Task: inverse folding
């Protein structure tokens, strides 16, 4: 507590006046202070001259200043720090400067600076631009730990490379950096990718020149392999094939794979040229020189196969090529397979697919006029009368006929075999995938060529081939536009062939002693001409005679559908689709067979016959007739009818007596064939 000021004596009255008669004079007090004092903008004040003591004015003076932290006013002096201390009872009679002298109350902390931490994309800091506040004048080694605390973590595959002053291009901060930090600054974290060590090894045809390679972790192999390649030498006549992880048996290194750890990288070489040796099973005959040399490394099988086929000289009779394998017990070779080392390719054979047939004994068919009605076209029913009319007796030698139409699967098998043996076709491979449906869309000419190929495949030679060219006296392997007149059919051969029209019709209509829906032709009953093969009722057609007593068009349709594949039928008012519908060709043998257990003689596809077509049927006795001999008759016979989407009355074609024809070069989707052969 400050002592109370002494009582002051009253000032004498102003000269020349009485008490209360004049205004006291004002003087200015100016406040100042030492270096620890901060003056306020207004640091003066006015007082009445001689009216107040310093004790009374001191508080007002103190309001004009502030003291620095850790300091307070010790005393007030007149004028300056060296002036006389102002006593509490001093009265101010003139303008005066009062000077605050301070005293330290506590020791101030050492001065600090602010350092901001930044870094590149490889480091994650704690917060955005975190800071540290070390004492001014510290060296890097003294504040480094503070800076490290501001690092949260390094990104994957990154680590510290250097500390820098200011940015990545600034001075490197290390133990040699001794400049003290006296001012605010920025220090920068520079990172680098973590290095991994790759140990290089290789096979016996590789020399490793430098066994180790360091690369940043995460570098893609496509970049590293160029450096690795520079550290090895591959022996002459060999080339680098690939790099593998760990050993020769490791996984191949892929270009886009980042490398993340120390590892062995293994160089695998390959020869520039390889040798292929051709071998085969016991049914395949291989040339004495079985090798194919100087094949470029990596050549595809589709190119080697051409050379390998030339090493096959033949097959055991009844066998044909099946597949190429990679060694006797290996996988089947595919066109895209590549060859990278000396290899044995192994040819396997399979039995030539057999065709099932029904043997038809020698027969004599005595022609006759029919007692029932047939459809007509342009007022005539001639097209439905078949080839056993009144006045004609046909003798047929024994033959075997296929129990069903040739399937696409069998066609494709022989077709591919034939193409490799210089047989030529208009048909293009792949038009019909393998299936149990009948082959269709193939011309008469191609069927003839195919029959010879099938014969050669079965017998192992062409001796039993049926078809020859009378001009060239050679086996028919192709038929051009001008060749039709010269194709000869030798029925004494045992090879595969098309049926003659008489053979086809006899097999389609044969009923033996069964007179159901049939008439007698000498010693045998034949199915009525207006019926499908094997049917016990006629096909319903537009006529006043239809349907027969006790039948409806629906019952006639059902009976026809039992043995034949067709689309629309006549229902008494028009042609309509069956219900359920029949949307396409059917697999063979899906319908009931005829009396000879032969399938699909009616419907599905129409079947080519050997014969030249003539509307006129020869009369009198004939043996094994083969159709017209006139070169002007250029069409070939089709029998049996077919499934059709667009032809509304196609079911009429399914009658056993219906004769049809087309050019030998025509390849319609409705046309197929059935085989005949001698046993």
Result:
């Amino acid at each position: 507590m400050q002592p109370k000021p002494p009582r002051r004596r009253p000032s004498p009255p102003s000269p020349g006046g009485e008490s209360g008669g004049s205004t006291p004079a004002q003087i200015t007090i100016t406040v100042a202070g030492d270096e620890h004092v901060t003056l306020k903008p207004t640091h003066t004040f006015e007082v009445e001259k001689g009216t107040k003591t310093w004790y009374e004015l001191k508080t007002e003076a103190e309001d004009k200043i502030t003291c620095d932290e850790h300091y307070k006013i010790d005393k007030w002096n007149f004028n300056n720090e060296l002036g006389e201390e102002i006593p509490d009872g001093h009265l101010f009679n003139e303008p005066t400067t009062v000077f605050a002298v301070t005293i330290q109350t506590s020791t101030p902390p050492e001065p600090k600076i602010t350092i901001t931490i930044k870094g590149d994309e490889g480091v994650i800091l704690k917060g955005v631009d975190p800071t540290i506040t070390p004492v001014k004048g510290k060296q890097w080694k003294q504040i480094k730990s503070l800076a490290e605390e501001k690092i949260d973590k390094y990104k994957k595959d990154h680590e510290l490379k250097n500390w820098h002053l200011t940015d990545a291009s600034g001075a490197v901060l290390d133990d040699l950096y001794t400049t003290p930090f006296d001012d605010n600054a920025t220090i920068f974290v520079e990172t680098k990718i973590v290095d991994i060590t790759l140990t290089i090894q290789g096979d016996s045809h590789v020399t490793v020149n430098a066994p180790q390679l360091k690369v940043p972790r995460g570098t893609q192999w496509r970049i590293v392999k160029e450096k690795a390649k520079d550290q090895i030498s591959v022996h002459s006549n060999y080339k680098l094939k690939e790099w593998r992880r760990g050993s020769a048996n490791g996984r191949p290194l892929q270009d886009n794979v980042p490398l993340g750890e120390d590892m062995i990288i293994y160089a695998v070489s390959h020869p520039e040229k390889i040798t292929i040796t051709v071998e085969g099973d016991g049914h395949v005959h291989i040339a004495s020189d079985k090798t194919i040399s100087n094949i470029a490394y990596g050549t595809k099988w589709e190119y080697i196969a051409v050379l390998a086929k030339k090493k096959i000289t033949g097959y055991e009779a009844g066998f044909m090529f099946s597949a190429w394998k990679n060694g006797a017990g290996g996988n089947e070779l595919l066109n895209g397979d590549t060859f990278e080392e000396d290899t044995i390719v192994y040819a396997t054979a399979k039995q030539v697919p057999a065709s099932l047939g029904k043997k038809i004994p020698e027969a004599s068919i005595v022609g006759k006029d029919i007692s029932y009605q047939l459809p007509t076209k342009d007022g005539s029913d001639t097209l439905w009368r078949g080839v056993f009319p009144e006045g004609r007796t046909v003798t047929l030698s024994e033959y075997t006929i296929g129990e069903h139409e040739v399937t696409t699967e069998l066609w494709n098998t022989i077709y591919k075999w034939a193409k490799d043996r210089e047989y030529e076709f208009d048909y293009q491979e792949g038009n019909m995938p393998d299936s149990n449906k009948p082959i269709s869309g193939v011309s008469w000419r191609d069927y003839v060529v195919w029959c010879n190929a099938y014969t050669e495949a079965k017998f192992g030679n062409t001796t039993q081939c049926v078809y020859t060219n009378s001009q060239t006296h050679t086996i028919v392997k192709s038929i051009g536009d001008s060749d039709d007149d010269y194709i000869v059919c030798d029925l004494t051969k045992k090879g595969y062939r098309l049926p003659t029209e008489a053979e086809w019709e006899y097999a389609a209509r044969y009923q033996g002693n069964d007179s159901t829906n049939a008439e007698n032709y000498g010693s045998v009953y034949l199915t009525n001409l207006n019926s499908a093969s094997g049917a016990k009722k006629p096909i319903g057609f537009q006529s006043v005679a239809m349907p027969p007593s006790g039948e409806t068009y629906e019952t006639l349709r059902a009976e026809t559908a039992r043995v034949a594949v067709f689309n629309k039928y006549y229902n008494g008012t028009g042609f309509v689709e069956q219900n359920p519908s029949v949307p396409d060709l059917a697999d063979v043998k899906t319908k009931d067979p005829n009396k000879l257990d032969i399938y699909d003689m009616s419907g599905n596809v129409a079947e080519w016959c050997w014969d030249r077509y003539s509307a006129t049927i020869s009369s009198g006795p004939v043996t094994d007739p083969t159709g017209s001999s006139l070169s002007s008759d250029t069409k070939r016979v089709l029998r049996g009818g077919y499934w059709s989407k667009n032809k509304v009355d196609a079911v009429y074609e399914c009658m056993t007596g219906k004769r049809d024809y087309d050019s030998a070069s025509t390849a319609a989707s409705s046309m197929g064939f059935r085989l005949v052969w001698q046993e």
About this structure: The radius of gyration is 58 Å. The chain is about 10% helix and 30% strand.
